[in-house]
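Researcher: I'd like a candidate sequence for this fold, 224 residues long. If you have to choose between options at a position, lean toward the conservative one.
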């Protein structure tokens, strides 16, 4: 899914970008609180990771500002302060969760999965459509007994479509969730990756799961 990282420690910022991208997330990043507000106001993010202490605008101020603007993006706060008061302030400002520095990347990933389950109202890490299963923890994808190997981008696209099973997604919606601001691909990139997924998911299968809705977009569902 699409994540914003706002963290002014450059090394930590870059490390989180690399690790989250490797895990299949589409990532934008900044080091200034004012930039974080602009990112969140101009794009749709499934979650944001905000450092509390940032130049320009603190993480708490960013939280208060985006909530004033009715931007509902779930936020995980990063803080080096391990006091009850600081955690309460972050939660009261609108954070969904917090992590104390230094932290384990495995813990961050687990907390993101919990956040995604709450956002998408799913009860487990396993998404299912028919005999297609995607495990967000292990990142394993299976169609029946067949294991399917996907690229990072293919995985991100499939996860987004499975979270929206039965919902027709436009090309703009898909592109805005699966690719970040820095992407400079062609205008038909969504169509290209849908073809990649069809070859791996539907080719050779009697029941097709990926459908084109002409003039509107694409949908993942069991029926024709």
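Model: Candidate sequence:
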């Amino acid at each position: 899914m699409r994540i914003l990282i706002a963290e002014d420690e450059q090394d930590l910022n870059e490390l989180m970008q690399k690790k989250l991208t490797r895990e299949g997330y589409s990532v934008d990043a900044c080091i200034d609180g004012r930039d974080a507000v602009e990112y969140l106001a101009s794009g749709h993010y499934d979650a944001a990771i905000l450092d509390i202490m940032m130049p320009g605008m603190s993480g708490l101020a960013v939280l208060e500002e985006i909530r004033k603007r009715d931007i509902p993006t779930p936020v995980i706060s990063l803080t080096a302060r391990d006091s009850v008061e600081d955690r309460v302030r972050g939660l009261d400002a609108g954070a969904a969760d917090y992590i104390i520095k230094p932290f384990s990347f495995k813990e961050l990933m687990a907390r993101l999965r919990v956040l995604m389950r709450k956002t998408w109202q799913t009860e487990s890490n396993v998404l299912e459509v028919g005999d297609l299963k995607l495990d967000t923890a292990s990142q394993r994808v299976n169609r029946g007994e067949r294991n399917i190997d996907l690229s990072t981008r293919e995985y991100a696209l499939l996860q987004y479509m499975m979270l929206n099973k039965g919902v027709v997604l436009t090309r703009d919606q898909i592109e805005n969730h699966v690719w970040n601001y820095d992407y400079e691909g062609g205008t038909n990139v969504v169509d290209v990756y849908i073809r990649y997924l069809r070859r791996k998911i539907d080719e050779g299968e009697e029941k097709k799961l990926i459908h084109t809705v002409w003039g509107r977009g694409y949908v993942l569902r069991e029926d024709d």
